[in-house]
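Work Package 4 report. The design task specified in the project plan requires that, given a folded chain encoded as structure tokens, an amino acid be chosen for each position. We show below one input record used in the internal validation round.
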């Protein structure tokens, strides 16, 4: 349902009242009646104005207000009167921030007011519109704000994203996150081999489009290995040592590597682009550098399933770029102190080493920066770096894959990263693993062997197996069914059917639903997103073999981008231009 357009208009002096549903009596409240918002008796009585609120279900409340009525009181009245709007409201204000003590005098009464989504329980601060257009915030230094996030910030962002993905997967056209309002992305391929993707999307908080260009890596750089892979380097002692033919970097010790060359310059294969955010009226509200945000929002979705995994002690990551970095960082934030071994498998040793160094010193130019994941001096996690040049590459690769509780695949590979037998034979099936594949995004690209996906969706009869094996869910989890069936090489080459994949958004409860069920049991809802209340589903997601495949969804960018703009304004990051 498209929200009705609304404005705040001057009204003649009439009794104050409220109406629901455009004046129709839907049984959701009284029609008419006094609205207890009298002006101070000692002050002159100005003309009242009509102020309209609406919730996501389309229910409206119109209140005639004096110009000195506090907006906080108006919002409180709506939450009290509109029974079905208690959990999620759309308030007709946006742009610069107003407090609940702001009055109608601070608003331009002649302008049309746009839509902004907020939570009813966060009513102390909400949007306001002063002037003809909202403020526009440019966030170029995305690194700064992303690295300021704590575990609680990540859980809050994941809940917002989980709600949006839930609506995407389950709602009809009454919700702006619905899949009907998400156009397919399109791409432009240039003569130099680069690809530019255009990803428009709609969300409750507005709309937006992301432009990203992906340039193929330089062949010479990508193929170059490092003979120094045989070094066993310790970050922590006063000197590095060469002792065995194994690429192992221990983060538990306490020094820097003085003899090591500086980290390599950023690869030309990295994603470049921007995310433009608009309100529902088409006004630009934000412009965000998409290079870091793309990796961050992808990892934000992938690590949603990490929160309640029974064990995350051994983490194996393929790749060492931005995607790998943010998957590792969020895993460490969400499961602090629980990751004992980090195994990075990549083609370039220096890139992997730079990734590790960045984890523990992401803002070297800021001496006052406090790293939310701690520092290398107190870390008990051991990091092993492995490249194909290692003389025992195949043995160590099998060891790292078999030992892993969690595997992140973050490379645009055109061939499987490891043999299917590592996971599909009886020995490989003994351990439950969470595997996230986010690097391949075209039909010819594969990170996982198709046999691994076929095994995951095949019907299994427990009594027929003589060997121990972990629970299979009978499906592969994807961010978008339509996108993965068309673009995900693993899904296409495994010839999976639509009923063999399930969208991530279907697995989670909305925040209000989780809170309601927790309250009914006398419990406090966990921070972050919560799984649907199903024992079989919970056992599979927490202990079984789970594969998540993502090709990207514009909705993720808009939801996360709007949250970043909000946080950037609150923290004074970026440049804000009024009436842009």
């Amino acid at each position: 349902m498209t929200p009705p357009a609304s404005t705040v208009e001057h009204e003649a002096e009439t009794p104050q009242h409220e109406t629901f549903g455009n004046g129709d009596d839907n049984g959701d409240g009284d029609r008419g009646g006094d609205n207890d918002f009298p002006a101070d008796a000692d002050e002159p009585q100005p003309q009242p104005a009509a102020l309209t609120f609406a919730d996501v279900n389309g229910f409206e409340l119109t209140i005639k207000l004096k110009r000195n009525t506090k907006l906080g009181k108006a919002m409180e009245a709506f939450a009290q009167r509109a029974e079905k709007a208690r959990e999620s409201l759309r308030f007709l204000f946006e742009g610069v921030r107003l407090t609940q003590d702001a009055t109608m005098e601070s608003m331009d009464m002649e302008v049309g007011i746009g839509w902004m989504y907020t939570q009813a329980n966060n009513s102390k601060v909400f949007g306001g519109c002063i002037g003809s257009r909202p403020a526009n915030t440019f966030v170029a230094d995305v690194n700064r704000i992303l690295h300021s996030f704590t575990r609680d910030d990540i859980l809050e962002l994941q809940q917002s994203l989980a709600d949006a993905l839930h609506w995407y997967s389950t709602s009809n056209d009454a919700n702006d996150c619905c899949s009907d309002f998400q156009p397919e992305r399109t791409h432009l391929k240039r003569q130099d081999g680069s690809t530019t993707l255009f990803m428009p999307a709609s969300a409750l908080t507005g709309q937006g489009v992301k432009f990203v260009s992906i340039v193929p890596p330089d062949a010479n750089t990508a193929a170059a290995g490092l003979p120094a892979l045989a070094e066993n380097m310790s970050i922590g002692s006063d000197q590095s040592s060469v002792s065995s033919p194994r690429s192992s970097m221990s983060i538990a010790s306490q020094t820097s590597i003085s003899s090591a060359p500086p980290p390599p310059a950023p690869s030309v294969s990295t994603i470049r682009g921007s995310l433009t955010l608009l309100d529902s009226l088409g006004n630009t509200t934000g412009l965000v550098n998409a290079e870091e945000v793309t990796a961050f929002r992808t990892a934000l979705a992938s690590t949603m399933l990490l929160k309640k995994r029974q064990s995350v002690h051994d983490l194996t990551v393929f790749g060492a770029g931005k995607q790998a970095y943010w998957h590792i960082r969020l895993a460490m934030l969400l499961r602090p102190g629980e990751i004992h071994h980090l195994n990075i498998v990549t083609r370039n040793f220096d890139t992997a080493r730079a990734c590790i160094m960045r984890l523990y010193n992401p803002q070297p130019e800021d001496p006052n920066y406090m790293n939310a994941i701690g520092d290398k001096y107190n870390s008990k996690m051991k990091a092993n770096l492995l490249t194909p040049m290692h003389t025992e590459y195949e043995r160590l690769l099998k060891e790292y894959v078999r030992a892993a509780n969690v595997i992140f695949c973050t490379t645009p590979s055109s061939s499987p990263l490891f043999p299917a037998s590592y996971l599909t034979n009886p020995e490989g099936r003994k351990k439950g693993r969470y595997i996230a594949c986010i690097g391949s995004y075209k039909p010819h690209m594969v990170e996982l062997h198709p046999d691994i996906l076929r095994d995951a969706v095949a019907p299994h009869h427990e009594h027929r197996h003589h060997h121990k094996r972990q629970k299979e869910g009978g499906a592969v989890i994807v961010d978008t069914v339509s996108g993965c069936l068309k673009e995900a090489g693993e899904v296409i080459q495994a010839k999976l059917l639509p009923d063999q994949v399930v969208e991530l958004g279907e697995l989670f409860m909305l925040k209000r639903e989780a809170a309601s069920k927790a309250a009914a049991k006398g419990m406090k809802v966990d921070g972050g997103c919560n799984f649907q209340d199903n024992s079989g589903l919970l056992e599979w997601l927490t202990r079984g073999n789970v594969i998540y495949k993502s090709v990207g969804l514009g909705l993720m960018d808009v939801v996360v981008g709007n949250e970043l703009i909000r946080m950037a304004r609150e923290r004074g990051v970026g440049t804000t231009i009024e009436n842009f």
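The mean pLDDT is 71. Validation will be extended to a larger panel in the next phase.
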